[in-house]
Amino acid sequence: MTFQNKTAVVTGGASGVGLETAKLLVERGANVAVLDWSDQGGEAIAPLGEKAIFIKTDVSNEADTQSAVTKAIDTFGEVDILVNNAAVLAYSPVHETSLEDWNRVMGVNITGAFLMSKYCIQSMLRKGGGSIVHVGSAQSFMSQEKVAPYVASKTALLGLMRSIAVDYTPTIRCNTVCPSTIDTPMLHWAMEQSPDPQAIYDECVDMHLLERIAQPQEIAELILFLASDLAANITGQAIRSDGGIGIKIEGSKR
């Protein structure tokens, strides 16, 4: 997989899967615009050198999103690849979910993906082609307890993916990577909400047939594959990299 002279945009790119995706894209020749709302984003991508720029962005805000895409194009040229990775998490069942939390999660996880797709698709059409990869979740297909906003947002990503694929293929392909537990700052934040973080970590390990938690680079490699010409025959597909958790849960229900 090589991406020489390609322009990529990665949201949520200051840490975790997004940062690993940006690193791999740069290593394989791409120019990368890293979007994140973290104040540490510039520092995080500094080792990537001149082939990467950081743009502080709230992807749930249309003006921010449009401005960021414009800056990416002005710096590196029209967009070839979009990775919609930005996401936030809230823990609550429906009756305990505030409208503020619901809007925050949906705003970043699904509205952000819509807005980024909207403006990057315009660029891809001008260039004559491109590839979009959403980062969904194993919870695009199933649910834990008390994560209603997150599950709803990650499920909605699949509908957005299908619509983009139907409307724009073959010019633009769109797919979704659906991982389960990944060793990222979001996981560690979630564990810290428990009085016994180690117990939560052990439970996460035990849920997977592979009895391990994925590393961010593993998911990044799959993202790059779907964005590359090697996946030229794949569009509108949700690809699980879930350590076997899906089949384990589905099998236990039979």
From TrEMBL:
Protein name per its UniProtKB record: SDR family oxidoreductase
Any GO MF annotation of the entry: oxidoreductase activity
Keywords for this protein: Oxidoreductase
InterPro entries registered for this protein in UniProt: NAD(P)-bd_dom_sf, Sc_DH/Rdtase_CS, SDR_fam
Pfam families from the UniProt entry: adh_short_C2
Protein family membership: Belongs to the short-chain dehydrogenases/reductases (SDR) family.
Family matches, as Gene3D superfamilies: NAD(P)-binding Rossmann-like Domain
The keyword Cell inner membrane belongs to this UniProt entry's keyword annotation: no
Origin species: Pelagicoccus mobilis
Signal peptide start and end residues: none
Keyword Protease in annotation: no
